[in-house]
């Protein structure tokens, strides 16, 4: 057997292997057992039984595959390429090298978002799920508004900011009406422009505003260590 064959062996999943993969795919997405149960349409006890390596029916395996958005819902019921412990470890180490995990804090008020915008130099704001057109537009309008405010925040006196708070609150409330909840995180970075060794890094604060389905908000989320920024 070659090294590649040892890294990926194709055969039917045992209950123990299904348990490992279910837990791995769930934890990679930072989902709780309760979140996986809700997304799959199963009850929490069923998810617990699967992750305890107890036998799972075909319908249960299909429901879990749907929750993980696999195109083939029978992926857990046919010969599967089983990664070795070394392969899983290498994939996890690669993920941790390329990404940073941030605590996801609730974002519920316009005043809170305005203060976050004032304290940041740039942002990475995006939905974490496929939204409908109305919700997608509402989120885009929120992002446009706080970005515009960030660019001219120093022009407002304290009493004049209340209008901004109210406008941002209206955007947040509209998203809640559309079953969209917001989480935020801040990250201190050192930015270096160009490859010249003499260029000194510039300290900056990145604001992350991320949209999640209402009731399915994670406690943390991962983001690439490098990428394009909105200045």
Strand order of the largest sheet: 4-6-7-5
Shape: flat
The mean pLDDT is: 87
Number of strands: 8
- The end-to-end distance, rounded to whole angstroms, is 52 Å
Helix and strand composition category: alpha+beta
Uncertain segments of ≥5 residues (pLDDT<50)?
Answer: 1-7
Task: Tell me what the structure shows.
The N terminus is likely disordered. It contains nine helices and eight strands. The strands form three sheets. The protein has a four-stranded mixed sheet, covered by helices on one side. It has a two-stranded antiparallel sheet with strand order 1-2. Strands 3-8 form a two-stranded antiparallel sheet. The chain has 231 residues and is of the alpha+beta class. 46% of the residues lie in helices and 22% in strands.
Can you describe this structure in just a few lines?
With 231 residues, the protein is of the alpha+beta class.
List the helices and strands and how they pair.
Blueprint: H1 3-7, E1 8-11, H2 15-28, H3 33-40, H4 44-51, H5 58-67, E2 80-83, H6 85-98, E3 99-103, E4 105-106, H7 110-119, E5 122-127, H8 133-152, H9 161-177, E6 180-191, E7 202-213, E8 220-224
Which short descriptors sum up this protein?
231 residues, alpha+beta, 4-stranded mixed beta sheet, two-stranded antiparallel sheet, disordered N terminus
């Amino acid at each position: 057997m070659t090294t590649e064959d040892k890294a990926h062996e194709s055969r039917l999943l045992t209950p123990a292997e299904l348990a490992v993969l279910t837990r791995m795919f769930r934890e990679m997405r930072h989902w709780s057992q309760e979140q996986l149960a809700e997304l799959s349409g199963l009850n929490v006890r069923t998810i617990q039984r699967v992750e305890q390596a107890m036998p799972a029916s075909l319908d249960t395996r299909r429901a879990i595959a749907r929750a993980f958005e696999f195109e083939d819902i029978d992926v857990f019921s046919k010969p599967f390429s089983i990664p070795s412990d070394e392969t899983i470890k290498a994939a996890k180490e690669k993920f941790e090298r390329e990404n940073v995990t941030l605590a996801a804090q609730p974002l519920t008020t316009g005043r809170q978002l305005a203060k976050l915008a004032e304290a940041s130099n740039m942002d990475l704001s995006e939905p974490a799920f496929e939204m409908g057109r109305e919700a997608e537009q509402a989120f885009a309008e929120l992002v446009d508004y706080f970005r515009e405010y960030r660019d001219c925040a120093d022009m407002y006196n304290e009493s004049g900011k209340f209008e901004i708070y109210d406008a941002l609150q209206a955007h947040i409330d509209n998203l809640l009406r559309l079953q969209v909840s917001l989480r935020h995180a801040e990250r201190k970075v050192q930015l270096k422009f160009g490859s010249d060794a003499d260029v000194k890094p510039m300290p900056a604060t990145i604001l992350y505003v991320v949209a999640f389905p209402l009731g399915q908000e994670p406690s943390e989320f991962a983001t690439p260590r490098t990428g394009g920024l909105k200045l």
